[in-house]
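Translate sequence into structure tokens.
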Amino acid sequence: MRVLNVLFHVFHLGLTLFTALGWMIPSWRMFHLAVCALTLFSWFGIGLFLGKPGFCVLTELQFYVRRQLGIQSQRESYMLYLTRKLTGREPNQMTVEITTQAVFYTVTFLSLVLVTF
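Result follows.
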């Protein structure tokens, strides 16, 4: 389980960085758009179905592994968790969520526009 926890961190962080920066590389844009579409489906498709808008399948799986390891996490987003871990401070949840969404929607729009032209 410890290895799985580390693998989830590596994958989740990699996916987060790819989502933020993947649109910059022209040959990656279609894949980037697919990842953004899957993220939107998780947030609003699965999330609304479960009554949890913003639901992230990857975060849910990762926090399940952490609970199995006895690591109790608050019910939170991965970005809030990551911000806390990287800064050592308690971040403002609203600021983290708004920033996450602003970056996500901006890069998704950029990728969509750049793929079309």
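Note: The longest helix spans residues 93-116.
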